[in-house]
Design brief:
Order of helices and strands of chain B: HEEHHHHEEH
Subcellular location (chain A): Nucleus
Helix content of chain A: over 70%
Shape of chain A: elongated
Radius of gyration of chain B: 41 Å
Number of helices of chain A: 3
Helix content of chain B: 40-55%
Number of strands of chain B: 4
Pfam families (chain A): Med21
Number of strands of chain A: 0
Distance between the termini of chain B: 60 Å
Largest sheet of chain A: none
Strand content of chain B: under 5%
Largest sheet of chain B: 2 strands, antiparallel
Distance between the termini of chain A: 62 Å
Structural class of chain B: mainly alpha
Structural class of chain A: mainly alpha
Strand order of the largest sheet of chain B: 1-2
Oligomer: heterodimer
Number of helices of chain B: 6
Number of domains of chain A: 2
Family (chain A): Belongs to the Mediator complex subunit 21 family.
Keywords (chain A): Activator, Coiled coil, Nucleus, Transcription, Transcription regulation
Largest interface: A-B, 54 and 61 residues
Protein name (chain A): Mediator of RNA polymerase II transcription subunit 21
């Protein structure tokens, strides 16, 4: 799981992979038809590897449907990822401004934190004193 | 492993390559000399010694003690691949790919909505082109090559637009990170303040309970067994003078029954304080 952009990049690569597998499926499992009277489907000898492994029409169509659905799902994923890219509304100038602002705020917050730590140490010292007083008792 | 014929004792010698020849330069003597030179250079230029990376015109035998100079034309080779010092995104044109979208705006105020829109368009085009490719392939596979090239251009363009977006995302992440830091700091400060307040309240509470025995009138002293005990009391509670006397202490007189319950309460309140600071 990377950032949004990397996810998007991966999704697009997956889409390309899906294109290839769709192509492969269609090219290897279609049925054989003759377009004209001159065409004929050659009979393969038994030992020869088959170029096309035809599926029964309903199985083939079911496969097609599934692949098409997957493509659409991936496409929707990609669009969703695009819409959720960070900072679509900010221009570079906005970003630089907010970085500077945050830097200032961080400095202030750090100052306050140090102050609080100092106060804590003081109270601790006072408490320590009181405790010592009691133990001597 | 390689030199089995050399006998077993020597097999290890060939397993690692020799160290590079310049290791001999790093003698303690040379290191000390280099440090002195660096210090001198820093003093001359009024710079902090930690910021100095290289001293120009160093003597021959110390040359390996500092990193080499940057390549002059800012290009170098790594594993036989040309590299540049400044990593820049190669433009589509330089990669020999047609640009489909508009040229990326260099305008700093440009919003990135357009870029997202661009990406969506490219993604849709990809799907459409794939469909077209399938159609073409089923009719005339010879024509498919062109569509495949189109798809490739689309994919490369998509990746390019995406990579152009990376600096933007990096800034966005930096903002997020800083915001988180700020929140954490504020939370920490608030937590410290909370504990401090609690401790202060506890201290005040204690103060009101552990009032000292003010210098006791003579009638009370006899019960304590003399002036020693009065001294002891005032020594124990130097900071608590003038605070409210604990219940049961009237005019510095503490009867034994009350004293027992007073110390019992005392213990409980200390347990509370300990709990707060645990």
């Amino acid at each position: 799981m990377g950032d949004r952009l990397t996810q998007l990049q991966d999704a697009v690569d997956q889409l390309a992979t899906q294109f290839i597998s769709c192509f492969y499926y269609l090219a290897h499992h279609h049925d054989l038809e003759s377009f004209g009277p001159a065409d004929k489907i050659p009979d393969l000898k038994s030992g020869q590897p088959k170029e096309v492994d035809s599926f029964a029409p309903e199985i083939f169509q079911a496969g097609q449907l599934e692949l098409a659905r997957d493509l659409i799902t991936k496409e929707q994923q990609i669009e969703y990822l695009i819409s959720s890219l960070p900072g679509l509304d900010n221009s570079q100038r906005d970003q630089e401004q907010s970085i500077r602002d945050l830097e200032e705020e961080l400095k202030v917050a750090e100052g306050q934190r140090l102050e609080a730590v100092k106060e804590k140490d003081e109270v601790l010292a006072r408490l320590d004193q009181v405790l010592r007083g009691i133990r001597r008792h | 492993m390689a030199n089995l014929e050399d006998g077993e004792g020597k097999t290890n010698a060939a397993m690692m390559p020799d160290p590079p020849p310049f290791w001999k330069s790093f003698t303690p003597d040379n290191l000390a000399r280099f440090d002195t030179l660096k210090q001198e250079f820093a003093d001359q230029h009024g710079a902090d010694i930690d910021t100095i990376v290289r001293i120009p015109d160093i003597s021959e035998d110390l040359v390996y003690l500092q990193p080499p100079a940057e390549p002059i034309d800012s290009k170098y080779r790594l594993f036989d691949e040309p590299q540049t010092l400044a990593e820049e995104l190669q433009t589509l044109e330089a990669g020999g790919i047609d640009r489909l979208g508009p040229l990326e705006e260099t305008d700093k105020d440009g919003k990135h909505i357009d870029r997202a829109f661009e990406l969506k368009r490219l993604a849709k085009s990809m799907l459409l082109n794939f469909l077209e490719l399938m159609g073409i392939m089923s009719n005339d596979p010879a024509q498919g090559q062109e569509k495949v090239a189109d798809l490739k251009t689309l994919l490369l363009n998509f990746h390019h637009v995406l990579n152009e977006y990376r600096p933007h995302q990096a800034r966005e992440q930096l903002i997020q990170l800083m915001q988180d830091q700020l929140d954490a700091k504020r939370a920490e400060t608030a937590a410290i303040r909370g504990v401090v307040d609690k401790a202060k309240r506890a201290l005040e509470g204690l103060g009101s309970m552990e009032a000292p025995a003010p210098p006791a009138p003579s009638s009370g002293i006899s019960r304590y067994g003399g002036s020693n005990s009065a001294d002891r009391n005032s020594e124990t509670w130097p900071g608590a003078k003038g605070l409210v006397a604990p219940p049961g202490m009237v005019n510095g007189t503490l009867d034994a029954r009350h004293e027992g319950s007073y110390w019992g309460r005392e213990n409980i309140s200390w347990a509370c304080v300990d709990g707060d600071f645990a």
